[in-house]
Amino acid sequence: MVDIATRVYNHKWKVDTIVRSLIDTDFYKLLMCQSVFRNRPDTTVTFSLINRTKSIRLADLIDEGELREQLDHIRTLRLSRGESTFLRGNTFYGKRQMFRPDFMEWFEGLQLPPYHLEKHDGQYELTFEGKWPEVMMWEIPALAVLMELRSRAVLRAMGRFELQVLYARAMTKLWEKIETLRQIDGLKLADFGTRRRHSFLWQDWAVQALIEGMEGKFIGTSNCLIAMRREVEAIGTNAHELPMVYSALANSDAELAQAPYQVLADWHEEHDGNLRIILPDTYGTEGFLARAPEWLAKWTGIRIDSGDPATGAETAIRWWKARGEDPQDKLVIFSDGLDVAKIAELHAQFAGRVKVSFGWGTMLTNDFRGLAPNDGLAPFSLVCKAISANGRPTVKLSDNPNKAMGPADEIARYKRVFHVGEQAAMDVVV
Amino acid sequence: MVDIATRVYNHKWKVDTIVRSLIDTDFYKLLMCQSVFRNRPDTTVTFSLINRTKSIRLADLIDEGELREQLDHIRTLRLSRGESTFLRGNTFYGKRQMFRPDFMEWFEGLQLPPYHLEKHDGQYELTFEGKWPEVMMWEIPALAVLMELRSRAVLRAMGRFELQVLYARAMTKLWEKIETLRQIDGLKLADFGTRRRHSFLWQDWAVQALIEGMEGKFIGTSNCLIAMRREVEAIGTNAHELPMVYSALANSDAELAQAPYQVLADWHEEHDGNLRIILPDTYGTEGFLARAPEWLAKWTGIRIDSGDPATGAETAIRWWKARGEDPQDKLVIFSDGLDVAKIAELHAQFAGRVKVSFGWGTMLTNDFRGLAPNDGLAPFSLVCKAISANGRPTVKLSDNPNKAMGPADEIARYKRVFHVGEQAAMDVVV
């Protein structure tokens, strides 16, 4: 029996929308948004989309009208009653009412601010400007829309069975990864792949496959909507945008040097337990840890998001020991450039010495390498970053100079203030 | 939107039926049935299911109650009005009204006769007895039911995503075969996989994949129902049961020696063109061709179904030349033990010398080798054959002694009458 109503309903959509919910975003955006809403609500920021993979000419692949339709649709979204109830009522990391009533009230009224879109040299220049708590909520949906429109542009040329086999191959590939990973004793792994996903449905499939296939070693997803629908834990803490904006707002070198710690001081007031995770690499991990205040060593763990991950973890272990902490009580979350072999290698090196966890991103939700003609569906490196705050440019150094961003003179200043010396360059694949 | 009515409808089936139509069968069964209905309608035959792969203990895998439910359901099937219209109205091989009105009237009233089911030593003993035109229609549905119940028994232990990945792998495997085969210039290939299919839905998927993927090199399917639904040609001619039953009915060695030719004489009266295909191997190809009447060399082609296929085709080519026929005008259909490499090899050897066509069976519709734990879904060799006619045992020799069947003394007699000497034994995989 054909369900006529469903068919008619599906066909009356003027546009096949990609982002259909304000919580189809990373959970840590909500956590950070609440923190920003409380501590720096009136900061004016600009976020900008940056395609690091110049060879993929997004403006040639993706129709501007289609892109605008998708972005316009996101501006029509409002938090639904069920989503609000979920956020208000859920227990995250064992804590009830993680989201304060004043934040929830604000979130229920949120409409994403206007966007600015231009084409330059085969790329889209997509920027968002306005109050920080509003603008920051564009990051993940903007990335998801661009990623999925690029997928669709490539898929459009394929036949019906060619498409089915494409997904059959992608499923097989992911399942084989799961079959390998689940053999690792004591593994803990989360989905961090929202921002670089092939498509929403594919991320949703991947999460469900992990639930069935990982036999308890899958601990949750960063995607708030999928966490709600699939009844798994929403996972996440904080990201570089906090120290980047706090640092841009600093009025002197002395204030700048303290800015990253001020972020964590604000965070410390609000959160405990698994949410107290240090992200140390914004302006170099070594220096950040060396000059960190005493209380930071008491935090639950650290997230390693750039540079050589083993080096980063060893640095953290030495730091904890120097501060009189037992590394075995500490959590190390790896979240950069992971795939099966790297996860296995890092787990073998660090399990037992610290608590280890993995935030698996692009190679979980977008490993379509080798599956389409001319490798047209291979993932690429798209980011959406705060580039200025109250008119001042932001800077990111990270532990990999290839991930650095900001004006050259400001980068030089930050390197001086944060005592960052020579860094090992690593390819940024995705 | 969930379609409640569909869901309720699906759940009210007491049994998930495997065969849902009397034309979910090989087209040549219908052609042969019409011939039998006209020429030998009152012959009493016994058909029996034989599992050549003893290591697969079907009676341990498959619940007897479930098997009976499926077989009982088949006995409730009647030719539907649309199916009857399709058979009456369709053009097969360019010929209108291939099925005579008296046969269609009989077919519209057909109910399959009772079955007899016992268990012996881990195997089912499933037999059908009655009038030849009725009993012969059990062959394909009986095989399809046993094959699919075995698949289900193995699938039952698998999880939801494990299942999805199983089919993803099977699809990928088949699609890769299609990608290889479609590169062969001038290839012509048909689906002959009904009897050994993994499941009905899988065969239907395979046919659709061939339609899209083979770019015109796919010429049709032996499955009459799928041919109707997917609007492709129904393909088939005749099979061993005709000479086997005719031979069993022979009253003397002299009559026996003529029986296989009598089959084709009856066929010759009814059919021309692409339906005049010789199946020469029932009692040895060499002798059959050597003693064949002159008019047989005028037939359209030959089907090679046992023994070494290249040897069989070379034998046919020599025979045509000896009878003054040009092999380039003749069609050779290969239909035994085919997979991609063998198809490519035979095509390279014979294309241009004769017209070549392939009837691809088990490795098209049931290549689940290596896809389930303990290789539990690997295809196996199940047949359903006429074992007696009017109380006399049937005999098949074929060009491979491992495919021979019948009582030992009768086999010896047939070998003498048909001058069959030493034969090369070949493994029967499926």
From TrEMBL, chains A, B:
GO terms, biological process: NAD+ biosynthetic process via the salvage pathway
Record GO terms (molecular function): glycosyltransferase activity; nicotinate phosphoribosyltransferase activity
Segments forming domain Nicotinate phosphoribosyltransferase N-terminal: 23-146
Catalytic activity, reaction form: 5-phospho-alpha-D-ribose 1-diphosphate + nicotinate + ATP + H2O = nicotinate beta-D-ribonucleotide + ADP + phosphate + diphosphate
Top-level lineage group: Bacteria
Keywords: Glycosyltransferase, Ligase, Phosphoprotein, Pyridine nucleotide biosynthesis, Transferase
Post-translational modification: Transiently phosphorylated on a His residue during the reaction cycle. Phosphorylation strongly increases the affinity for substrates and increases the rate of nicotinate D-ribonucleotide production. Dephosphorylation regenerates the low-affinity form of the enzyme, leading to product release.
Pathway: Cofactor biosynthesis; NAD(+) biosynthesis; nicotinate D-ribonucleotide from nicotinate: step 1/1
Enzyme class: ligase
Residue stretches making up the Nicotinate/nicotinamide phosphoribosyltransferase domain: 188-422
Cellular component, GO, one term: cytosol
InterPro entries linked: N/Namide_PRibTrfase (IPR041525), NAPRTase_N (IPR040727), Nic_PRibTrfase (IPR006406), Nic_PRibTrfase-Fam (IPR007229), Nicotinate_pribotase-like_C (IPR036068)
EC number, UniProt record: 6.3.4.21
Record-listed Phosphohistidine modification sites: H240
Record family assignment: Belongs to the NAPRTase family.
Its biological purpose: Catalyzes the synthesis of beta-nicotinate D-ribonucleotide from nicotinate and 5-phospho-D-ribose 1-phosphate at the expense of ATP.
Name of the molecule in the record: Nicotinate phosphoribosyltransferase
Species name: Pseudotabrizicola algicola
